[in-house]
Amino acid sequence: IAIPAIGYIMFLPPTRLADLIPKAEFLVRHLQVKFINFSQSLQLLPGTPIVRRMEEAGLADPEREHWDVGGYRFADPRVGFLASRLEGCNNQITLRSDAAINYIEVVLAILERRVRSAGLNPAALPDPGRFKALKRRLGGVYLDFFRSAVELAAGTWNEREFRRMMAARDRKVTQTMGEMQNWLLDFWGRRAPEGGETDEAVSHGPG
Fold this sequence. Notes:
By secondary structure, the protein is an all-alpha fold. The chain is about 60% helix and about 0% strand.
């Protein structure tokens, strides 16, 4: 089963603040809206060409332990600080959201293959347009949060404001994922109550 996906590294040692929002917009444009894509930093794996390039640029310490995949510094310290804060706010809500997206994409791919191999009407499948619309909304939530975090990093960092932004993000993600769950449950003929997940859905869903 082929599922189009992008493994994305948002934060590289040479990354500039000005690079970040266009990179996030790229993710949303291509509906790669798992939060890990917005928060992933480079890992320096031993023996890879980029290790030598980072050492030559003075961004990685040649004497570091070989297992230290984060043993480098960012050319712009503001980018490094932002990377650490975004990695730190990848919580249970965003992790479950990422897992749900993976789960639904696999389920849809399996259903499509089985329907087509059986010669059935593709109209029997869940509406993919609704899934794309919800992913686009989720991407908008992450993009707004990410853009605001970049603006904070560019100025004077306000941790209280960042935490307020994160709480707002989590509320919107929870709401969007609830709608996504109900869209899928409607297909199976059972729906979660408004504003929450059913125990059955949780027990059979991802995470």
